[in-house]
Amino acid sequence: MLTEQNLTWLGLHILMPGLMLFMLFIVGDLAYREKAGRFGTLVLFGALGLGMFGFVIKWALTRYVI
User: Fold this and answer.
1) What's the CA gap between 15 and 35, in Å, rounded?
2) Residue 49 burial by CB count (10 A; 0-12/13-18/19+): exposed, middle or buried?
3) Which of 19, 25, 41, 42 could link 31 by a cystine bridge, Cβ 3.0 to 4.6 Å?
4) Cα angle: 21, vertex 23, 28; to 5 degrees
5) Which helix (H) or strand (E) holds 61?
6) What is the pTM of this model?
């Protein structure tokens, strides 16, 4: 049976990383299709990946530091 705790664990450890990988694929595909070049690709990954990076840092800090 799927309890609230199991659903939370599944979402945080399986579904969220899967969504992040899919978003990285979308950003890479966007850079490729628009012929962004090296700098444009770096800007896309930097700007759009910053939110994902913040989420990972928050998770690591709350899990291992606090």
Assistant:
1) 30
2) middle
3) 41
4) 95
5) none
6) 0.75
Q: In terms of Cα–Cα distance, which of 15, 3, 7 is closest to 55?
A: 15
The per-residue DSSP string of 9-56 comes to HHIIIIIHHHHHHHHHHHHHHHHHHTT-HHHHHHHHHHHHHHHHHHHH
Residues 12-59: tens digit of each pLDDT: 889 998 999 999 999 999 999 999 999 999 999 998 888 888 988 988
Categorise residue 60: left if φ over 0, alpha if ψ from -120 to 50, beta otherwise.
alpha
